[in-house]
Each structure stands twice: as structure tokens, then as C-alpha cells.
Specification:
Alpha-Beta Plaits, 79 residues, alpha+beta
Length: 79
């Protein structure tokens, strides 16, 4: 069964040194996540500076959006 699209969040400003595990560690405090996707640049092999985090419940996403987030000293945007 597919998760509702409404529980998917866009994360911008993801610094080069931040990986999928860092995003999971930070956002899991708000609720269970189904997936974290960080698109990779084909030319450089590094992530492109943004990610998608998919929560299992809409309530978790709403909670995350109520705060500003800093991961490893870098501010990231959420929407």
C-alpha cells in the first residue's frame, strides 16, 4: 500500500557532509519515517543538496514543520 503523498517532506540546504543516516537520526525524533531519498548528481557522484523524507503518518510531518532545523551545525529548510 502506497503512503499518502501528504506525508512527504522536502529538505533543502543539505550540506555536503550530511548523509542519509544523519537525516534519519535527526528527523526520527519526530516520528517513524518510511524513506529518506537524497538524489545524486551523476557527474560528481555527490548528493545534490536536497532530500525527501517520507513519514508514515501525517501527524509526524506536521510536527516537524513546526520547528527550524539544524543538522551538524547547518540550517536546513523544510516544506
Amino acid at each position: 500500500m502506497a503512503l499518502p503523498i501528504l506525508s512527504k517532506m522536502f529538505v533543502s540546504g543539505v550540506a555536503t557532509g550530511i548523509g542519509e543516516a544523519d537525516l534519519r537520526r535527526h528527523f526520527q525524533q519526530f516520528g517513524k519515517m518510511a524513506d529518506v531519498h537524497m538524489p545524486i548528481d551523476r557527474l560528481t557522484g555527490r548528493h545534490r543538496g536536497f532530500a525527501f523524507v517520507h513519514f508514515t503518518r501525517l501527524e509526524h510531518l506536521i510536527c516537524v514543520l513546526a520547528y527550524r532545523h539544524t543538522i551538524d551545525g547547518h540550517a536546513v529548510g523544510t516544506r
